[in-house]
Each structure stands twice: as structure tokens, then as C-alpha cells.
Amino acid sequence: ETGVTQTPRHLVMGMTNKKSLKCEQHLGHNAMYWYKQSAKKPLELMFVYSLEERVENNSVPSRFSPECPNSSHLFLHLHTLQPEDSALYLCASSQGNSRQPYGYTFGSGTRLTVV
Amino acid sequence: GQQLNQSPQSMFIQEGEDVSMNCTSSSIFNTWLWYKQDPGEGPVLLIALYKAGELTSNGRLTAQFGITRKDSFLNISASIPSDVGIYFCAGQQLTGANSKLTFGKGITLSVRP
């Protein structure tokens, strides 16, 4: 248990479905992240939230919609996805500042399959 | 954009052997991190390096922050079957209140009993 919990662990959805991924961190961190991990590719940063404000959106299609209601929770709302969106979606959190950066703590991920 | 290079993509070793992995970049980083990802799980931090030239150990793992700040290596000694997994390097730069991580593609390590 890393302190970052993601649910569900596995999700199969049709292209017309709407679903949400949930991430919760119990570490008191001030930043949260969504990453996409596809086979044979580097981890792709999707969104960054710092103190509940979105500070980065890496050209992610609008069918992915993040939400950060407070510093402990992060959601990724999904709708009308494509089969190529099938991947492992990882949430991470960190407590960084300009003097001493720290690494990220990752959740176990949600394995998403779009059919 | 920034890239971290890890190669080869896969490594196969015999149980008990030592293995070394390298990570290089054309950019300078202030922090180097090594993560391991077990199948079906998220990456877990193994070692963090904060100073050029720093050599840090964590059990059978040893990592070094290159003097040029553009590379790092991870060494695993006396490998065991549970060392199997994907090993990622990551570089971190200071960018104000939040420091972004740049990840390598990872090296998949297999250990033959």
C-alpha cells in the first residue's frame, strides 16, 4: 500500500459509455497527476493538479476530463473513448517545492480496456 | 522535448548475477530517481539522488548521479527472482512550486532461476 489508492483496478467499457476513474491519496501531498502507460511507450503525463488547480494539460483529447475537488482526490472522467485509449492509467501525488523536489508516489493503476 | 534514454529494452540474467542499468539524457536534471514496476502495479520509488556525484545504496541496489547531471546508473547485486520487473529512471527539474518528472521508457528485467 503506497498511500495512493486507485479504483477500479480494472475497467472494460464500450466506446459510447461514460465512466470515471478515482484516485485518493492519504499522504498530505499538494500535487496530483494522471499518467497514461501504454505498452512499449514511456509514461505519458496527462494532467497535473497543484493545490486543486489544474496547472498542466498535455494536449489530452477532450474525451478525458479531470476533476480535483480537493487536494486528496482526483478523478478522470471518460466518455466516447477509442480502442487506442486502452492502457494502464496511473495516478501519482507529490509534495514538491522549489528547494527540495521529491519523487512521485504512484497508485497501482486502473487497467482500462475500450471495446 | 526532454528525453531519457534507457537501453536495452529488455535484459535477461541468471539468478545471483549483478546487473547494471544506465540512463542518459541531453538535458541536465537536478534530481535522478529510479523506480521499479511489478506486473499489475504502479511504479515504486527505489532510490532518489539529489547531488551530482552522489552514490546511494538501498540494500542490494546502488545508484549514482552522474557528474555531468545528464546520466545515472542503477546496479543490482546478487539478483533474485523477485527483482523481475520494469525499471524506470526519471529526471526531475526544479520548475517553481512543482517539479515535473521525465521518465525513460524502462528496462524489463528477467531473472532466470
Folded structure, characterized:
The complex is a heterodimer of chains A (115) and B (113). Chain A has strands at residues 4-7, 10-13, 18-25, 31-37, 44-50, 53-57, 64-70, 73-79, 87-94, 105-106, 110-114. Chain A starts with a strand and ends with a strand. Helices cover 0% and strands 56% of the residues of chain A. In chain A, the strands form two sheets. In chain A, strands 2, 4, 5, 6, 9, 10 and 11 form a seven-stranded mixed β-sheet that branches. Chain A has a four-stranded antiparallel β-sheet with strand order 1-3-8-7, with no helix packed on it. Chain A is built from no helices and eleven strands. In chain A, strand 5 (44-50) and strand 6 (53-57) form a beta hairpin. In chain B, strand 4 and strand 5 form a beta hairpin. Chain B has strands spanning 4-5, 10-14, 19-25, 31-37, 44-49, 55-58, 61-65, 71-76, 85-92, 101-103, 107-112. In chain B, strands 2, 4, 5, 9, 10 and 11 form a six-stranded mixed β-sheet that branches. Chain B is mostly beta strands and 113 residues long. The relative contact order of chain B is 0.33.
Observed structural traits:
heterodimer; A: 115 residues; mainly beta; 7-stranded mixed sheet; 11 strands; B: 113 residues; 5-stranded antiparallel sheet
Order of helices and strands of chain A: EEEEEEEEEEE
| Helix-strand pattern of chain B | EEEEEEEEEEE
Q: What's the end-to-end separation of chain A, in Å?
A: 30 Å
Instruction: Identify the most extensive interface between protein chains.
Output: A-B, 30 and 28 residues
Any low-confidence stretches of chain B, pLDDT <50, length ≥5? none
Query: Structural class, from helix and strand content of chain A?
Result: mainly beta
Report the structural category of chain B: mainly beta
Query: Mind summarizing the main beta sheet of chain A?
Result: 7 strands, mixed
Q: What is the total tally of β strands of chain A?
A: 11
| Global shape of chain A | globular
Instruction: Tell me, rounded to a whole number, the average pLDDT of chain B.
Output: 91
The portion of residues forming beta strands of chain B comes to over 45%
